[in-house]
């Protein structure tokens, strides 16, 4: 969610369902308290830092609930009384009338000394409307929080972190954990801001979900995957699971195309052929007894054209892995878009070549899928990598809608965008994927699932999850994130698919 979308949700709930803001705040505080109680015990000293606005109101409910349940809690209001109004003021008055005491930060140093005795700090200072640098005294309080050894739990969003994308400098609480209210905010998925959240969980507060505006963004979960990963029918045959072609490789870079092809086979594709320069085939073939080959004309080990491919054999294509940047790309992509049937997935060097050709083929009836990492996407849109990292949702949505393509922006939070601008975020994986070849493996998984699934969008989200879960499982049981290889991922795919088939 963006901050505005979250405000719209609240207003929709209040105006259409009969829920008051005071009631929603009570629901939020109680839901958060239930989650917090899983993390703390009654022997710990807890400080609740309370600001203005809804976040501060939540803080009063949380402090009251924990005190009612026998926890050792001090409530510190870090803003002047005039900043507490509306629903937040109502809950402050309930807190006081319940017999509890509020301490005020007239002297930040006094709060600092109290923090040194705390085991847990609950951050309810600032909500989703903050942008840019903080002002005194909140800036000093945030600095104090970050200096403590206490376990810090932020509520909804770490104080000072912007909810939306596109922001540069800011000061913020570095939380150990964040309890997110209703839905995660955009900044939970950005490299520059996700660090501040620590671990995060989501609590539900009773919003009328059927009435809420759809932000057209979704966090893709194992539950979503469990109902959409394709399972082989009892009487299926090799033709039922896709006939794919992977185009790429060169004499000097045969490994990329080999990994893509083997990953596609491990991901259940029915039939697979590899179009690669003739001199690369002896290097690729020993790893892929199950594949056939389409030898391509070459010059110095690099493909020159793909005119000789028998396109009638295939109903989906992946191109780009290891093809090099010096090929005669114009004729290759013209042939590809004119004759290839079904989805076309473009990765790696293919993204470099296709940049100036997308508009020409934007009206292609079958899906086009681009799978860039941030550097490749920055090249595609003529922006800097930092710009891409700051605004990945907006930039990928605009690009996908403009060119009518699917975009899989790879990263710790992979953002998958449809040609209509719908977006999914997939969070699986770990640092073991941060090495050459991982993207080639992902391309093979995505091609195979796209040809076996009813929905391209589902296939892309599920492929990213299976790729990431495989890395997680392998590094739990057999490998380190340092030593994990892309080839290990390929051989680990079978077990990941097995877990999905067993669970279903």
From TrEMBL:
<keyword id="KW-0521">NADP</keyword>
<feature type="binding site">
    <location>
        <position position="123"/>
    </location>
    <ligand>
        <name>K(+)</name>
    </ligand>
</feature>
<protein>
    <recommendedName>
        <fullName>Bifunctional NAD(P)H-hydrate repair enzyme</fullName>
        <ecNumber>4.2.1.136</ecNumber>
        <ecNumber>5.1.99.6</ecNumber>
    </recommendedName>
</protein>
<keyword id="KW-0547">Nucleotide-binding</keyword>
<dbReference type="Pfam" id="PF01256">
    <property type="entry name" value="Carb_kinase"/>
</dbReference>
<dbReference type="InterPro" id="IPR030677">
    <property type="entry name" value="Nnr"/>
</dbReference>
<keyword id="KW-0413">Isomerase</keyword>
<comment type="function">
    <text>Bifunctional enzyme that catalyzes the epimerization of the S- and R-forms of NAD(P)HX and the dehydration of the S-form of NAD(P)HX at the expense of ADP, which is converted to AMP. This allows the repair of both epimers of NAD(P)HX, a damaged form of NAD(P)H that is a result of enzymatic or heat-dependent hydration.</text>
</comment>
<feature type="binding site">
    <location>
        <position position="55"/>
    </location>
    <ligand>
        <name>K(+)</name>
    </ligand>
</feature>
<keyword id="KW-0479">Metal-binding</keyword>
<feature type="binding site">
    <location>
        <begin position="54"/>
        <end position="58"/>
    </location>
    <ligand>
        <name>(6S)-NADPHX</name>
    </ligand>
</feature>
<keyword id="KW-0520">NAD</keyword>
<dbReference type="InterPro" id="IPR036652">
    <property type="entry name" value="YjeF_N_dom_sf"/>
</dbReference>
<feature type="binding site">
    <location>
        <begin position="127"/>
        <end position="133"/>
    </location>
    <ligand>
        <name>(6S)-NADPHX</name>
    </ligand>
</feature>
<comment type="similarity">
    <text>Belongs to the NnrD/CARKD family.</text>
</comment>
<feature type="binding site">
    <location>
        <position position="439"/>
    </location>
    <ligand>
        <name>AMP</name>
    </ligand>
</feature>
<keyword id="KW-0511">Multifunctional enzyme</keyword>
<feature type="binding site">
    <location>
        <position position="159"/>
    </location>
    <ligand>
        <name>K(+)</name>
    </ligand>
</feature>
<comment type="function">
    <text>Catalyzes the dehydration of the S-form of NAD(P)HX at the expense of ADP, which is converted to AMP. Together with NAD(P)HX epimerase, which catalyzes the epimerization of the S- and R-forms, the enzyme allows the repair of both epimers of NAD(P)HX, a damaged form of NAD(P)H that is a result of enzymatic or heat-dependent hydration.</text>
</comment>
<comment type="subunit">
    <text>Homotetramer.</text>
</comment>
<feature type="binding site">
    <location>
        <position position="156"/>
    </location>
    <ligand>
        <name>(6S)-NADPHX</name>
    </ligand>
</feature>
<dbReference type="InterPro" id="IPR017953">
    <property type="entry name" value="Carbohydrate_kinase_pred_CS"/>
</dbReference>
<feature type="binding site">
    <location>
        <position position="440"/>
    </location>
    <ligand>
        <name>(6S)-NADPHX</name>
    </ligand>
</feature>
<keyword id="KW-0456">Lyase</keyword>
<keyword id="KW-0630">Potassium</keyword>
<keyword id="KW-0067">ATP-binding</keyword>
<dbReference type="Pfam" id="PF03853">
    <property type="entry name" value="YjeF_N"/>
</dbReference>
<feature type="domain" description="YjeF C-terminal">
    <location>
        <begin position="221"/>
        <end position="500"/>
    </location>
</feature>
<comment type="similarity">
    <text>In the N-terminal section; belongs to the NnrE/AIBP family.</text>
</comment>
<feature type="binding site">
    <location>
        <position position="322"/>
    </location>
    <ligand>
        <name>(6S)-NADPHX</name>
    </ligand>
</feature>
<feature type="binding site">
    <location>
        <position position="373"/>
    </location>
    <ligand>
        <name>(6S)-NADPHX</name>
    </ligand>
</feature>
<feature type="domain" description="YjeF N-terminal">
    <location>
        <begin position="6"/>
        <end position="213"/>
    </location>
</feature>
<dbReference type="InterPro" id="IPR004443">
    <property type="entry name" value="YjeF_N_dom"/>
</dbReference>
<dbReference type="InterPro" id="IPR029056">
    <property type="entry name" value="Ribokinase-like"/>
</dbReference>
<dbReference type="InterPro" id="IPR000631">
    <property type="entry name" value="CARKD"/>
</dbReference>
<feature type="binding site">
    <location>
        <begin position="410"/>
        <end position="414"/>
    </location>
    <ligand>
        <name>AMP</name>
    </ligand>
</feature>
């Amino acid at each position: 969610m963006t901050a505005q979308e979250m405000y719209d949700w609240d207003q929709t709930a209040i105006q259409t369902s009969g829920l008051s803001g005071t009631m929603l705040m009570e629901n939020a505080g109680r839901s958060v308290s239930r989650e917090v109680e899983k993390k703390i015990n009654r022997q710990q000293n807890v400080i609740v830092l309370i600001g203005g606005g809804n976040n501060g109101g939540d803080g009063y409910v949380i402090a009251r609930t924990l005190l009612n349940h026998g926890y050792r809690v001090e409530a510190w209001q870090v803003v002047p009384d005039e900043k507490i109004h509306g629903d937040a003021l109502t809950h402050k008055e309930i807190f006081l009338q319940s017999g509890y005491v509020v301490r005020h930060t007239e002297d930040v140093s006094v709060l600092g000394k109290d923090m040194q005795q705390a085991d847990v700090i609950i951050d309810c200072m600032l909500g989703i409307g903050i942008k840019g640098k903080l002002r005194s005294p909140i800036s000093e309080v945030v600095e104090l929080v970050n200096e403590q050894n206490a376990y810090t739990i932020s509520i909804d969003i770490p104080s000072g972190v912007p909810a939306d994308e596109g922001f540069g400098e800011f000061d913020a609480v570095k939380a150990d954990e964040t309890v997110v209210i209703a839905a995660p905010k955009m900044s939970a998925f950005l490299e520059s801001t996700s660090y501040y959240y620590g671990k995060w969980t989501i609590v539900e507060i009773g919003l009328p979900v059927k009435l809420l505006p759809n932000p057209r963004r979704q966090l893709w979960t194992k539950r979503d995957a469990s109902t959409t990963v394709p399972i082989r029918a009892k009487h299926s045959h090799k033709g039922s699971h896709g006939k794919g072609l992977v185009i790429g490789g060169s004499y000097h870079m045969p490994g990329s195309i080999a990994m893509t092809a083997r990953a596609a086979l491990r991901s259940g594709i029915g039939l697979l052929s590899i179009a690669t320069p003739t001199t690369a085939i002896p290097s690729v073939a020993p790893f892929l007894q199950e594949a056939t080959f389409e030898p391509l004309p070459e010059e110095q080990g690099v493909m020159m054209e793909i005119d000789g491919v028998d396109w009638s054999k295939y109903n989906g294509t992946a191109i780009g892995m290891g093809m090099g940047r010096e090929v005669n790309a114009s004729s290759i992509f013209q042939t590809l878009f004119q004759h290839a049937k079904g989805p076309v997935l473009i990765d790696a060097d293919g993204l470099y070549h296709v940049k100036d050709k997308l508009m020409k083929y934007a009206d292609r009836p079958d899906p086009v899928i681009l799978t860039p990492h941030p550097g490749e996407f920055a090249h595609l849109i003529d922006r800097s990598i930092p710009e891409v990292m700051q605004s990945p949702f907006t930039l990928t949505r605009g690009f996908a809608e403009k060119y009518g393509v699917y975009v899989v922006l790879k990263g710790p939070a992979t953002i998958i965008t449809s040609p209509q601008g719908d977006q999914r975020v997939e969070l699986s994986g770990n640092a073991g994927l941060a090495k050459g070849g991982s993207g080639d493996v992902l391309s093979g998984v995505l091609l195979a699932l796209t040809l076996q699934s009813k929905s391209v969008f589902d296939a892309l989200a599920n492929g990213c999850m299976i790729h990431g879960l495989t890395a997680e499982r392998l590094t739990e049981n057999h490998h380190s994130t340092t030593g994990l290889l892309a080839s290990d991922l390929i051989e680990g795919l079978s077990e990941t698919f097995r877990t999905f088939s067993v669970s279903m």
